[in-house]
Design goal:
By secondary structure, the chain is mainly α. The chain is built from ten helices and no strands.
Length: 200
């Protein structure tokens, strides 16, 4: 009778998968395919590129499961691999403008699929890759500062500083748009940024 891995912990799945159980690894893929694809799609020119990065992430994870330390987070480990692949892809080719359909797809359907979330993340993309990444990991993936620091290979203090600067720059952009707004839309939206992001 096939094992039901849906309720197993990440550490247990990694341990069993490292022993050669393909079903356990497939459970890991099902669990993290969506968040990894959303993350990669935010950093690449197309969904195909994002899917390629995710496939390579899982391939490298599978080949290196025996090196995974169960004392740490499997999720963070996978995101570290994906992040490094994204950085590597930047070096190989110049990023292109992300299609608007891809931008719309980035917003999590379960919790933030709203017009407010759409415009905040579109503005966040204009802040640059590093600022956008820390905001995405913190507020879309709901990761702790220490987890983000591990993924981006930075100190926790550096991540906190980046978060602070990114939120401030995002607020300044919203204030500027609201000051020049003749429709009332941006003025109505001004408070959303702090409601969603003014927490560490």
């Amino acid at each position: 009778m096939p094992h039901d891995f849906s309720t197993r912990s990440d550490q247990e799945l990694a341990r069993v998968a490292a022993g050669g159980d393909r079903a356990a690894f497939e459970a890991i893929v099902r669990r993290y395919s969506r968040p990894l694809t959303d993350f990669a799609a935010n950093k690449t020119a197309s969904i195909q590129d994002a899917e390629d990065i995710v496939q390579e992430t899982f391939l490298r994870a599978f080949l290196n499961l025996n090196t995974f330390n169960a004392q740490y987070s499997l999720k963070n480990w996978l995101f570290v691999i994906a992040y490094r692949l994204v950085v590597s892809s930047y070096r190989k080719k110049k990023p292109q403008q992300i299609d608007q359909r891809v931008v719309s797809r980035l917003v999590d359907e379960q919790s933030t699929s709203t017009p407010e979330a759409d415009w905040i993340w579109q503005l966040a993309e204009q802040l640059g890759d590093s600022a956008h990444t820390v905001l995405w990991l913190r507020y879309k993936q709901q990761m702790d500062v220490s987890d983000i620091a591990q993924i981006m290979n930075k100190s926790a203090i550096s991540v906190r500083v980046q978060l602070h600067r990114a939120r401030r720059r995002l607020a300044e952009r919203i204030d500027t748009l609201a000051a020049n707004d003749t429709t009332g839309n941006w003025t109505h939206r001004q408070g959303v940024l702090f409601e969603r992001t003014n927490r560490i």
